[in-house]
Amino acid sequence: MTAPALARPRIAERAAGVTDSAPWLGRLMLAPAVVYIALVVGVPFLMAIGYSFSTVTIGTSTPRFVGLENFRSALEDTAFLKALGNTAIFSLVSQTLVIVLASILAIALQRKFRGKWFVRLLILLPWVAPISLGSIGWLWIFDPVYSVINWTLRHVGIFGPDTWPIWLGQPNLAMASIIGVHVWRTMPLATVISLGGLSSIPQDIHDAAEVDGAGFFRHLFVITLPLVLPILLVAVLFGLVFSITDMIVVYVLTRGGPFDSTQVLASLAFFKSIDGGDLSGGAAVALFLLPVLAVCAVLLLRLARRAEVV
Amino acid sequence: MATVETRALRKEFTGHTAVDGVDLAIQEGEFLVLLGPSGCGKTTLLRMIAGLETQTSGDILIGGRLVNDLPPRARKIAMVFQSYALYPHLSVAKNIAFPLKAQGAPRASIAGEVERAAKMFGIERLLQRKPRQLSGGERQRVALARAMVRHPDVFLLDEPLSNLDAKLRNLARDELKQFQRRLGTTTIYVTHDQVEAMGLGDRIAVMNGGKVRQLGRPQEVYDEPADTFVAGFLGSPPMNLVPMEGVLVGFRPEQLLPPAAAAREDAGATVPMRFAVERVEHLGAGRLLYGTLPDYAPNEKIIVSLAYTVHSSIEAGHSYDFRVHLSNLKFFDPATGVRVPARPLPARRSA
Questions:
Q1: Which one of A20, A206, B65, B256 has the fewest CB atoms closer than 10 angstroms to its CB?
Q2: Domain A73-307, what fold?
Q3: Are residues B254 and B135 in the same domain?
């Protein structure tokens, strides 16, 4: 064969090279995500770490390295300690509720019944609706004057003429309210994850339990829940991390009030650094739970792997 | 132990009928095999007896008691699934104990019962393991132990051997039959494997299209098939069905023999048939001959199976005078496939 005849197929081979090589194709397809995360999450994250060890404020041009000073002063700040406690209550209570309710919902949604698609749609709605829209709806529901909850409960006769709670204005009620909205908002994802876990259990296992004589509760607690546990743990992990790092419900509904009773770390960091101009102090608050979150993530992932079956 | 009876049992799924009016009466301690190709309704029938599927119409009686509306747990049955359906997160011991606990057996007696069941199936040393640490054969034994531990009235087995490799399957089949004999528990066994069915069943119900085509002892179903479906489904290779003047004549591949071999058998008159051999397969334990019967149906391929004890030399491309015993010829209606009474063979085309 002559040389020119050989050259032509070689060009064609090279053109097909990138998409044919699995490692390079993989890198190529991952690249946009990696670049995006690096720029939008990675860079600000590193900047925040840098800020938390220095004295940056909005307007300073010569930051000074101060070591752990920002963290030390945060620990002496009563507002910070309050926010830390609130964050714990907010995330733990909301995620406990979410996981219980999502499991019940998922189990119910596994059964066949009329109008199932409609129920599914309703449940997914909070997740697909923009949160600002949803929260504004909730603002109206909790409104001190026009609260539909109060109006309904009074007309049903549960509230007497003197009962008219101010949902977002009384400290305990405000916390309960933001937990309620957060549960409403994060439950769809947990439900979908649990549903995925439930449908991964082979039907034979359920049939065997049925034939073996298990009643509803034995079936649920001895067979179904243990088998779906690894996936439920993933839902808990997502939920916890999301609850600890998110501030939108607090920001829209209460701005941390009344008297900081609903202030969480994420919202405190925002108010401190953006509204207050203390970038270093805010960064320290925001990063405070990073080790906790990291440990939480590693623990849950390890648990999930250990509980994995089949 | 109990009898199991189904009366005009039907199951319709949207758009098709899975089980179409099945009447069965299974005696106490009997081993009944439901045999049929996939999609014939045998598993659906078993699941209805178990209570895992609700019938569209008809009745199910276990031990003479109508169980139509009883949930599976109230039917005193145990089931072994094709996948074994062991609980993957529980140890072998807990798997076997599960039905006892669910039944509310006294705590003190459970450990002993589990031990006894494990010993019976030779899996005592596996009790602390998880199912994923077991081989296929071990899983199958655990599934059987879990099924028998609470002394059910009826065993329901859904292709329990199909996930085992061929060698293990023969062994497991033999063991299964022995256990069933020893326990004397009424057993319904679903399979698509005719060898399993022939080997295990006291009786076989051959199913197709949601109906029981024939019910009888293995030899009966093999020797006297009720229709062409049964004739073709049982036996490997299946029965030869040769169209001859308005009737289908059937005979088994091992029943058309060279004269020397045919003569050695004592029973009755034989019919000569010229057999044109086209190809010979040597299979070790015997030979398969492919060819036609030029005098009766020159275009119909038939298969003849010769045991290794038949020494006649046969070569492809030659015709031989073979013989078949008259009593081995079965006649079927070509339109309906149903068996019809024996009749004289039509005249040969070239005498």
A1: A20
A2: MetI-like fold (1.10.3720)
A3: no
